[in-house]
Hints:
By secondary structure, the chain is an alpha+beta fold. It has one domain. It has a 6-stranded antiparallel sheet with strand order 1-2-3-4-6-5. Helix 1 runs parallel beside helix 4. The radius of gyration is 14 Å and the shape is globular. The protein starts with a helix and ends in a 5-residue tail after the last helix. The model has no long low-confidence stretch (mean pLDDT about 95).
Amino acid sequence: xxxxxxxxxALYQILAPYAAQLEIKKDDAAxxxxxxxxxxxxxxPLFFAAVQIKQSYVSFHLMPVYVTPALLASISPELKxxxxxxxxxxxxxxxxxxxxxxxxLTAAGYxxxxxxxxVP
Length: 120
């Protein structure tokens, strides 16, 4: 198993600024998981994002791109290639360019959730 601490730390720094305004479900050396305080019809909070160290990569889950797929319209082919499923990006190494783009996408996702009334 590789040591993905550096990758995790860089991705954590993208998500951490939003955590103070959200509900932190988990925050440790291998995972930061945050929900909104908005309750869905099933009485569960709406997921915002998570960073998790997995066995073969570090994943960055960003639910706003699932809720509003139009957010993905302008992402680069390189970032798109990192996607697994509809809202997860996987990394094995730090990539400053892609992380900068992912930070902008995260900000756009938060703004989208704000516009929909899911977050303050």
